[in-house]
Amino acid sequence: MSLTERIPHRHRGTAAVLAVLLGATALQSTAALATTLFERLGPTGVSGLRMLTAAVFLLAVARPAFWRFTRRDWASVVSYGIVASLMNVFFYLAVDRIPLGVTVTIEYLGAFAVALIGVRRVRDGLFAVGALAGVVMIAGPTVGSTDLLGYLFAACAAASLAGYTLLAGKIGTGTPASSGIKGLSVSIAIGAILLSPATAGAIPHMVPSDWALVACIGVVGLALAFSCDALAVTLTSPAAAGVFFSLDPVVSSLVGILLLGQLLPPLAYVGIGLIVLSGAAVTWRANRSAAQLAAHTASLRAVDAVEARRG
Q: Which of 173, 165, 184, 167 is CA-nearest to residue 243?
């Protein structure tokens, strides 16, 4: 039985938001560490090394039987690997030019767009808009950079995050050979191969102590973070996970305070509260919907069983 199947339907929304929080903390804290390597190795070089170390770790843990992948499995893992590598590169290119909090905020707009796709009722749309308003409150007072190229890279990261959010669920629901961490490990390996020219260019400039930092960035900031994100999408839906990803700007703000000593304007903290409330509302609705769906499915099966006996 997979991890997803072990989690009761009524708790899947809560489990998903906890997974997103863990992944966001891992991602944002290691992103702050990664910036210390940009001057010598470059953003693309650090990105490639990050993908490489994450791929080695995930392949060693998952040991996927990739020769058993179906054509559909390969389509999913290759697409996910391409999107993940693009998001990785654009994110670091943006962080190298504009503040981390602003980059994360702009990137979240990709997940927000996915959240809007799943809107079925006005109330759901209000939750998504509330999360977006919170993001604007966080970003607005902090935007002081005029580096347009940095904003362009952040926008490309946002577009990649939209694709990443949509494809993450397919990684968790493929055939047994490619489901879960097995498919994820192959996807990250594909991304590492795509970024191998940048990785090869960065390695000659590394010192021995860099490898420990790169390993931390890859294993914690990518392997763990991406695994948590994929789990969240599998437990709920791309739309629900898209709203949960609004917690990323919150986490990046807290990381800035704790690790970098960066205090935010009062309006930004109001935005944090609004995002948390929106995320909590979506979590509750996800839990309720999953429980109702499970109950409805169970009742239909019971009716079918009774009719089968009578027949």
A: 165
- Quote the CA–CA distance of 62 and 247 in Å, as a whole number: 28
Determine the average pLDDT of the residues in 201-207.
92
Range among 14-28, 51-65, 137-151, 166-180 with highest mean pLDDT value: 51-65
Quick one: how far is CA 90 from the chain centroid? 14
Mean pLDDT value of segment 194-222: 92
- For tokens 């704790």, name the residue: 258
DSSP string of 28-93, one letter each residue: HHHHHHHGGGHHHH-HHHHHHHHHHHHHHHHHHHH---GGG--HHHHHHHHHHHHHHHHHHHHHHH
Reference 92, options 140, 139, 45, 161; nearest CA is: 45
Q: What is the pTM of this model?
A: 0.77
Written as one letter, the residue type at 293 is L
Cα three-residue angle 299-303-304, rounded to 5 degrees: 115
